[in-house]
Amino acid sequence: MPKQNEDSTRARLFRAGVKIFAQKGYGDATVREICKEAETANINSINYYFGSKELLYREILEFIFSEYDKRNLQGWDQKTPEEQLKAMIVAYCRMLYEDNAFTSNAAAIFVHEMARPSSFVEDMVDQYNRPEVERHMQMFRRLLGEGADDDAVRDCLVSVSGQLLYYSFAWPLFSRLFPDYDADQRHEAWAEHVFAFSMGGIAAIRKRLKAKNED
């Protein structure tokens, strides 16, 4: 959560916005519901602290889209590509699946955005996702070695990302098929599995590319 006094009206409104937007999406969430959740009777408080419901939502998206960089960029350039991949996977698993209601609600908003993108998504992609993807593409290119074209690099990025996001997107179905599975409590084990599985897949792709280039 952005650095601010967690007991302040602004902080309570921010947290309440995350919870209500997660439950209802941007369009169906109301200012009155957010203020009630924040335990403030003044329905003008959102305008006072954020400017509007729209700008509150944008600030929440800014927090969500910037969170990965806060967790993962430290020392990135000093890591080996294998260490970078492990750091990427661990950061995403913690961000998406830590046993924390605020984190879970933030992940739900992200899922809403993927299903029904708001007008803010393009700005978020340009500011956060595009530089992030460029770093990850460079990492996968190093992992795959010489001869890896853009398609192979991009497909590896998508394959790893798909594993990380699966529970968020498929949880309504998955939780009914496997009701005893607790993603919150298993996120560290899940990160280890995704890393091992991904390294195996990358090794297989690297071997295939090497054979192709030797033909």
Automatic annotation (TrEMBL):
This is Transcriptional regulator, TetR family. Keywords: DNA-binding, Transcription, Transcription regulation. Residues 15-60 form the HTH tetR-type domain. InterPro entries: Homeodomain-like_sf, HTH-type_TetR-like_transc_reg, HTH_TetR, Tet_transcr_reg_TetR-rel_C_sf, Tscrpt_reg_YbiH_C. Signal peptide: none annotated. Residues 81-202 form the Transcription regulator YbiH C-terminal domain. PANTHER family: HTH-TYPE TRANSCRIPTIONAL REGULATOR BETI, HTH-TYPE TRANSCRIPTIONAL REGULATOR RUTR. The keyword Transcription regulation applies. One of its GO terms (molecular function) is transcription cis-regulatory region binding. It holds the Pfam family CecR_C. It comes from the Bacteria. The keyword Transcription applies.
